[in-house]
Specification:
This protein is an alpha+beta fold. The chain has helices spanning 18-27, 42-48, 55-65; strands spanning 2-6, 11-16, 37-41, 70-77.
Length: 78
Amino acid sequence: MIDLYNATANQLLGSITESDLKVLVDALEEEGLQDQDYYIDTATIDVVADGKATEHLVGLLRKAVGAGEGVDIRWQRR
C-alpha cells in the first residue's frame, strides 16, 4: 500500500493502490526521478478524474484540497 499525505501538515489523507499512484505519476509533473510530491488543485483533480482515477483517489484529493485553492501532497510506500 501507499500512503498519501498532506505534505505541509504531514497529515495522512489515506492509502492508495499502485494503480492509483500510476495515475498520479502519469498525469502530474515530477521534478526529478525521486520526486514524491505534487501540488494538487481542483483543475488537477479534474484531469485525473477523467476516467482513469478511482473514485477513492478522486475523493482523497478533493478532501485534501477542500475549500482551499490547492495543497501539496506526497506519497510514501509502507
